[in-house]
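Hi all, long-time lurker, first post. I run a small reading group and we've been trying to get comfortable going from sequence to structure in the token notation. Rather than ask abstract questions, I figured I'd post a concrete chain and ask someone more experienced to write out its structure so we can walk through it together at our next meeting. Sequence below, copied exactly:
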Amino acid sequence: MSSILQVQGLTKRFGGLTAVKSMGFDVGRGEIVGILGPNGAGKTTLFNLLTGFIRPDEGSVLFGGTNLAGRSPTQIVNLGLARTFQLCRPFVGMSVLENVMVACYSPRGAATREKPAQRALRMLEHVGLAHRAHSAAELLSYGDQRRLEIARALATDPQLLLLDEPFAGLGSSEIEPLSALIRALHQQQGLSILIIEHKLREFMQLVQRVVAMDFGELIAVGDAQDIVRHPKVVQAYIGTTEAELATA
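-- Answer (accepted) --
Happy to help. Here is the structure in token form:
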């Protein structure tokens, strides 16, 4: 399997704190990979480094063979790497459809030659929100705002989608349908996905491979079933036994 993303020696310091230290891993084309680690492990900082929101002090990120060093978030999304965020930020005062149409005007979205409204509606159909197309985006439930974020990212025509805690703040009845959506995007569209998530049961059911980190460093890489038994991963979850971690 060829790699769509290659991370080598990625390091970021904030004063005396090293938030990410010499991280290295890859994501294969059509693969779904999870980033695992306790709070403060540096996962979101890693996402911000990959997507150009902060610049690394050392290391490299290659996406489809292109070096992302020094590129802005706009340039990176236009190369085909899109993301969602921990906190949903819909464009207030705009409809659900208009929120997605904004992304349709990106260079990659526009290159599909679909009319923006038509493409936006198709993205909303993908995520199950077409019936809310003309609702005010800020009036959506939190679960539907998560779907809106994914639709907006999909409208940029990504090759790799980064999901930052998509299940955060959702009830159990909302998690399974969203998990099924992510699985469908991966299986039916062949979309490569990199995901951070703290709800470990759903996380482990989704991912094919796990990159585990703690205090900004890589501690293990492997299949989901192997990672939950890895001594360093168990140790990182202080007070969490192997059995508890596997069923969390």
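A couple of things your group might point at:
The two ends are 31 Å apart (CA to CA).
The first strand starts at residue 3 and ends at 14.
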